[in-house]
Design a protein that fits this description.
single chain; Glutaredoxin; Glutathione S-transferase Yfyf (Class Pi), Chain A, domain 2; 2 domains; four-stranded mixed β-sheet; 8% strand
């Protein structure tokens, strides 16, 4: 399997952390996000969305980070992290879909304003994050309620749901995500940060954030 990715991006870190969690080996093809490598014709031929990451496994070309995680979990038999029990799997799938449709877009607003813009020597616009704040707090409240009295999102141990939902807030300190009013969410992301797979894929230092 060959993964086309740039480890600094949210969805690439998600996939690589998931691969580490599942102890999956893969061939690496670096695509420079800030240089626009994802827009190059040779990459667009792999992923017509011109977004990262993409996985090529023999005759299968797959994009969408959560789909990649689910496929690789089944291919490698990583049932501990993507159980075959229908109800547990439906629960994980639900959080994967929710993350992609709602959580990622909301967290991304904070990422762009408070991380990406400063890296590009541009000024953050507080009005943008202020506008997004009510929606973000609504979504964070859903997670906070879910995590009340439980350590992980789906079951007694970490699953791919935790990796997927954590990814959009992986730089939460620098994103300036307002976690103060969501103590269960804060406790959970602290637990995610202690996972070896998360530590192994940290990008803050590479971005000059530490």
């Amino acid at each position: 399997m060959k993964l086309y990715y740039d480890p600094i991006t949210v969805n690439c870190r998600k996939v690589v952390a998931g691969f580490h969690l599942m102890n999956v080996s893969f061939d690496k093809a670096h695509v420079d996000y800030f240089a626009g490598g994802q827009k190059a014709p040779e990459y667009v031929a792999i992923n017509p969305n011109a977004s990262l990451p993409a996985l090529v496994d023999e005759d299968l070309t797959l994009w969408e980070s959560n789909a990649i995680l689910q496929y690789v979990a089944d291919k490698t038999g990583a049932a501990a992290y993507y159980p075959k029990d229908l109800k547990v799997r439906a629960d994980i799938n639900r959080w994967h879909l929710w993350e992609a449709a709602h959580w990622f877009p909301s967290c991304y607003v904070y990422l762009v304003e408070n991380v990406v813009k400063p890296l590009l020597s541009a000024e953050p616009d507080a009005s943008v994050t202020n506008k997004e704040a009510p929606n973000w707090h609504k979504l964070a409240g859903i997670l906070d309620q879910r995590l009340a009295g439980r350590r992980w999102l789906c079951g007694e141990s970490v699953t791919l749901a935790d990796i997927a939902v954590a990814a959009p807030m992986h730089l939460y300190r620098w994103q300036k995500l307002p976690l103060e009013s969501h103590p269960n969410l804060r406790r959970w992301i602290d637990a995610v940060e202690q996972l070896p797979c998360w530590k192994a894929t940290d990008v803050a230092t590479n971005l000059g954030l530490k």
